[in-house]
Design brief:
Blueprint: E1 4-15, E2 19-29, E3 32-43, H1 45-58, E4 64-70, H2 73-80, H3 83-89, H4 103-115, E5 117-122, H5 130-149
Parallel strand pairs: 1-4, 4-5
Antiparallel strand pairs: 1-2, 2-3
């Protein structure tokens, strides 16, 4: 039996950096679509970009092949250039001896990428990709709703 192939679009947003942040993700499989979003106080844009991918992957109840589409070079390049594996080997310390930022989220994401077969793809932000724009809206709406409730 072959693995289910899932498409996952993700985006993060922050109002102030640090500030209130939100994430949005859209999972697509076999003509079905699932949208998720959330927000946190006192976070950063990069943390929200990572959280979007993590929360999207957490929605999968069995190992899948996942095509992740993100406008975050930070997220995509860390995997496609292999930095994240080097950081793990070095105990989450960068070559300049400074700790890797967001190591908690990188560790969680690495664990998830070992359950699934994940392909990271960079998309252009705020362009004409409808799903990237939808994720951006999910993320920014989550920020607005969080602020109005606070």
């Amino acid at each position: 039996m072959s693995m289910k192939r899932v498409t996952l679009y993700t985006d993060g947003a922050c109002s102030g950096n640090p500030g209130v942040g939100g994430y949005g993700a859209v999972l697509m499989y076999n003509g079905h679509e699932k949208r998720i979003s959330g927000a946190q106080a006192d976070t950063t844009n990069n943390r929200m970009e990572l959280t979007a991918v993590i929360e999207g992957l957490k929605c999968l109840n069995r190992p899948c092949e996942v095509d992740v589409y993100s406008d975050s070079a930070y997220t995509v390049n860390a995997f496609n250039s292999g930095w994240v594996y080097g950081w793990r080997r070095a105990g989450w310390v960068k070559p300049d001896k400074k700790p890797v930022l967001n190591a908690d989220l990188w560790q969680e994401l690495l664990t998830l990428t070992e359950v699934h077969t994940v392909h990271f793809n960079k998309v252009k932000g705020h362009a004409d990709n409808e799903y990237n724009n939808l994720c951006d809206k999910l993320a920014t709406d989550a920020v607005k709703n969080f602020k109005s409730e606070g």
